[in-house]
């Protein structure tokens, strides 16, 4: 019964509600002029499928599966890429918090540091005037998680993945480090690896923060539109476009 309720809710609330409204408009137009009705139907179906986990998981999964998580580390520094932060929000030992993806990346880096002893370089600045400075927040949280200050490096100036790579390359050269273990979300890894290659760095990919499950099962929930699926589809398309640009301008 709970799954039936979830299915119904997905079409009563946005974004599913908008699909029903558009289908209603298609039916109304069909009686007047079939050509615009068919065009609108095509647009509606495209919107609908982009809102479903069936499509969003397939798109994001294609990115996440490109680099498998390695069994052993082969590097001399753990490089973590930021993924957004809030400013002024309460934290245990200060203000400002990393967004979900960035926080997951940070946790992975701390766990890798615990058994490898490698230093951590966190790269990410203040992207917007009302957002937090990612590297500064990350340093405070790393200290709170028990990472020694001498094992923490930061780049608090980068505003995008390309700058992450360029600024990281400069810091590593200054510190005499040459083999970064790159930690970022699985969907973000292909584009990040290309930018690091463009910056002259040979990195070992250590993806984390996965979205799509490894095992796929076809079930009704895969066909229900949801805000989460829209967000995932948008994220995946952004990464594919960014990867293309990174390849073109390497």
TrEMBL record:
One Pfam family from the record: DUF218
Record bears the keyword Transmembrane helix: yes
Coiled coil: none
Protein keywords: Membrane, Transmembrane, Transmembrane helix
CDD domains tied to this protein: YdcF-like
Residue ranges occupied by any DUF218 domain in the UniProt entry: 76-242
Membrane-spanning parts: 7-30, 36-60
Designated name of the protein: DUF218 domain-containing protein
Species this chain originates from: Paenibacillus pseudetheri
The organism's taxonomic lineage, starting at the top: Bacteria, Bacillati, Bacillota, Bacilli, Bacillales
């Amino acid at each position: 019964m709970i799954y039936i309720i979830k299915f119904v809710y997905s079409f009563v609330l946005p974004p599913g509600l908008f699909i029903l409204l558009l289908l209603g408009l298609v039916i109304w137009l069909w009686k007047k002029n079939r050509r615009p009705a068919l065009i609108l139907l095509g647009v509606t179906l495209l919107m609908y499928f982009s809102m479903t986990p069936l499509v969003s998981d397939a798109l994001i999964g294609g990115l996440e599966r490109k680099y498998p998580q390695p069994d052993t580390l082969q590097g001399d520094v753990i490089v973590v890429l930021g993924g957004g932060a809030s400013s002024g929000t309460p934290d245990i030992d200060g203000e400002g918090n990393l967004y979900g993806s960035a926080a997951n990346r940070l946790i992975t880096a701390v766990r890798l540091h615990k058994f490898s002893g490698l230093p951590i370089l966190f790269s990410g600045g203040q992207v917007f005037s009302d957002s937090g400075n990612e590297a500064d927040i990350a340093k405070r949280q790393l200290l709170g998680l028990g990472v020694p200050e001498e094992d923490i490096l930061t780049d608090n100036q980068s505003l995008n993945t390309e700058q992450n790579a360029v600024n990281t390359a400069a810091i590593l050269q200054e510190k005499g480090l040459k083999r970064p273990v790159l930690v970022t979300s699985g969907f973000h890894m292909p584009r990040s690896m290309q930018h690091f290659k463009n910056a002259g760095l040979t990195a070992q990919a250590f993806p984390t923060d996965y979205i799509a499950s490894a095992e796929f099962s076809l079930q009704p929930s895969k066909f229900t539109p949801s805000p989460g699926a829209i967000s995932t589809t948008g994220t995946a398309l952004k990464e594919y476009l960014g990867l293309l640009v990174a390849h073109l301008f390497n």
